[in-house]
Amino acid sequence: MAYSQPHPRLSVLSNSSHSSAEHLSPTASSTRFSLPTAPSIHSQLSTQKVPLNRPGPSIYDRPLNKSRGAEVSVSAFAFLLSEIVQYTQKRVNGINDLERRLNTLGYRIGVRVVELMLWRSESSSKTPKREVRLLPVLMMIHSQVWKAVFGKAADAIEKSVENADEYMIIDNDPVIERHISVPRDLSQLSCSSFTAGIVEAVLDGLGFPARVTAHSTPLAQFRSRTTILIKLEKSVLEREELFK
Length: 244
Hints:
The chain is α+β, with helices and mostly antiparallel strands. It has helices at 41-47, 74-89, 95-124, 134-150, 175-178, 193-205, 234-242, and strands at residues 156-159, 166-171, 210-216, 226-232. The protein has a domain at 94-242: Muramoyl-pentapeptide Carboxypeptidase, domain 2, CATH 3.30.1380.
């Protein structure tokens, strides 16, 4: 799976569009036959009420809280994501460049996701609370963000045993990978880099800067299993130590 419009054309009127009466000679203006006068168009329009085609309410006019439970069909989501991947694939030089661009596109989506979620939480609660601890933020991404974007929560969240600054969000059946067939020459490609960009934007927006990447970790029962690797910046760990 997730976005150039053609420039509007300018219509030019040629000189031939002027009335042919301008090109008549003076002698031709004195006609021998009188034509019946046609009724004025303006007079007809003034007596008839022409219905105006007024469009319905725009999507931007809908209240954000009422559209919270709105869903997008999987076919539309898969089609849009497929077009994004194909468009990006034609403009890159390799797998790393393709994943980087997908990550950038996902980051733009994540910025809007975190803004929308924060606005809804502040408008629906009289005492909105901002999370300042790392674990509650990761749990929110694992459940609320995943459900808001993909319609379901992620399957697991783990902490790295070797590195204290690394956390992993695991999705056994990611929606992004469900309708994408990766060719053999691109077997190392993970289109979930788009998801990694969303997670990175949410963490940055909440004040937990990190570098987020996507890795394919298939299992026998879950062929599309994907791990979103979160590598936090040193400042986040230092702040966490102050809360202990």
